[in-house]
Amino acid sequence: MRLVIIAGSIAMLLALLGTPILIRLLQRRGYAQAIRESHDGINYPEHSGKKGTPSMGGLAILLAVVGGYTAAHLVTWTPPTPSALVAFFLVFALGAVGVADDYLKIFKQRATGVRARTKLIGQAAAAIIFALLVLRFPDDEHVTPATQAISFIRDTGLVLPLLLFLLWIWFLITATTNGVNLTDGLDGLVSGAASMTFAGYTIMSVWQFGQRCSEHLAPNCYVVRDPFDVGVFAAAFAGACFGFLWWNTSPARIFMGDTGSLAIGGGIAALAILTRTQLLLPLMAGLFVLITLSVIAQVTSFKLTGRRVLRMAPLHHHFELLGWQEVTIVVRFWLIQGGAVALGMALFYAEWVGK
């Protein structure tokens, strides 16, 4: 447990102490994100007070995650594992896509950032490479970071051919990253919700480590590779998001930008795949799924009927236009996320007890 505690604690401190340094650096250079304003009959929530707030805060999160994970391994003098390294690859590849998007928003003052097609291509490339990597690096018992089987709480009997597996992993990663990205519209919403998700995966990974089949040949043991180190990775992310929340909560001193939201989405998707809990992801990322569904419902309704089901999508902006205060929306959405994560963990534990 030392690695988990060290990684989470140091990542939190690095984010808490390092984010204000990044804020000052960005403010001195005038790196602030463009804010959408109402025009041509299109009404956006009133966010003019956020003008001048620096973005790209995701850099602080990423550095804190790496710092926390690395420090834990240096203190205990243990090497990183292939599972964590491929997870870091995905996070930084998607973070790079986010940096490109934030660059256009900040330097070119283009509120929409990178074109959707370009962003999807970048996400797809990162996802496909990750999918190929997780099928490699077997351990002494020939267990790889992931298999071609679809998993729920452990691998199921449904094994996909390689092409379908690549498409499945691409879907999981793209859906998760875009869900987090869509949710990142209010101060502290994503950083608070993601902290809960990463904390849940930390507990699940540590539990899998204690009940892994290499140590316990029982019907309910888990066939997973590097579960403890995956937990260290999750703990570092939980700590980093929690520390960043201090500066990101309303009124935000800094936005995480796409650099943060895409990297966080990649981290969540990687954990679902590495812990063999892919179909549990809709609960572990419950709020992000809800926000995504609100956008799908809005677009589908408008295309089929010409009418909108919400005043504005994503869902949190609908409540803003109804007159809800930003802090009220964020806290209530945190409660939704907490309930979803708790239900996901309850199902995870119930499956083990029922074996």
What topology emerges from the helices and strands here?
Blueprint (H helix, E strand, L loop, with lengths): L1 H28 L28 H19 L5 H26 L8 H18 L15 E3 L3 E5 L2 H22 L5 H22 L16 H22 L8 H18 L6 H4 L1 H20 L9 H7 L4 H28 L2
Antiparallel strand pairs: 1-2
Question: Concise description?
Answer:
This protein is mainly alpha-helical and 355 residues long. The protein has helices at 2-29, 58-76, 82-107, 116-133, 162-183, 189-210, 227-248, 257-274, 281-284, 286-305, 315-321, 326-353, and strands spanning 149-151, 155-159.
Write structural notes for this entry.
- 66% of the residues lie in helices and 2% in strands.
- It is mostly helical and 355 residues long.
- It has one domain (2-279).
- A hairpin with a 3-residue loop joins strand 1 (149-151) and strand 2.
- Helix 2 (58-76) packs across helix 8 and helix 5 (162-183) crosses helix 10.
- The chain is globular, with a radius of gyration of 20 Å.
Protein traits:
single chain; 355 residues; mainly alpha; two-stranded antiparallel sheet
Number of helices: 12
Query: Helix fraction?
Result: 55-70%
Rg measurement, Å: 20 Å
Q: Order of strands side by side in the largest beta sheet?
A: 1-2
